[in-house]
Amino acid sequence: MNSLLLKRILKSTLLLGLLTGFTVSLAATGDATPAPDFTLKSRSGENIKLSELRGNVVMVNFWASWCGPCRQEMPLLQQLYDRYQGMGFTLLGVNVDEQPAAAQKMLKEIPVDFPILYDSSNKVSKQYQVKAMPSTFMVDRDGNIRHLHQGYKPGYEDDYQQQIRALLKE
After folding, report:
1. Long-range contacts formed by 30-39: CB under 8 A, 24+ apart
2. What is the DSSP letter of 107?
3. What is the pTM of this model?
4. Rounded to 5 degrees, what angle do the CA atoms 98, 93, 69 make?
5. Across the strands, what pairs with 137?
6. N or C: at which end does the chain have fewer Cβ atoms within 10 angstroms?
7. Angle at 165 between CA 160 and CA 168, to 5 degrees
């Protein structure tokens, strides 16, 4: 099977996940699990390690430049970052494009100032078992994944905000 066919299959699978987007609250089921630790290079060139952000609520958002809903969601994520970053919250945008240049081009069109990390080998997205674009994980102050959102639909940002507020109060 050639790589072009594999890419088409992957994009089709991700699109299906996107169209059937859903949210899972792991805390409600008692299934909160430790977030896999990772270190990725940011667009500013520094290495960012998830475990070094312990004590903060962290939103980890996996996205791709070819993903329409990711583009739609990005400005809304910036608004959340602006609103909560001074309260013990941070947001990590993890780009999964094979070529960082594709992400950089998109970020010129839709500028954000929250940390953008590059997972061009998809090592971290595999650790997190990302099945849809975008995929957003809410990590509590103790480093546990508490909520998972697969795909994006208008209104998810309201869920994000409620979850951020609740996790910041803990």
Report:
1. 32/140, 32/144, 32/145, 32/146, 33/144, 33/145, 34/143, 34/144, 34/145, 35/60, 35/137, 35/139, 35/143, 35/144, 35/145, 36/124, 36/127, 36/128, 37/143, 38/123, 38/124, 38/127
2. H
3. 0.83
4. 80
5. 60, 148
6. N
7. 120
Q: Which two tokens stand for residue 147?
A: 């909520």
Tokens 């949210």: give the residue.
23
In the chain, what are the domains?
A: 3-169 (3.40.30.10)
**Coil, helix or strand at residue 35:** coil
Q: For residue range 8-44, what is the model confidence (pLDDT) as tens digits?
A: 434 444 444 433 344 444 444 456 799 999 999 999 9
The three-class DSSP label of residue 158 is helix
Of 91, 102, 100, which Cα lies nearest the Cα of 121?
100
Q: Three-state SS for 42?
A: strand
Q: Are 69 and 15 in contact (CB under 8 A)?
A: no
Tens digit of each residue's pLDDT (9 = 90 or more) over 66-122: 999 999 999 999 999 999 999 999 999 999 999 999 999 999 999 999 999 999 999
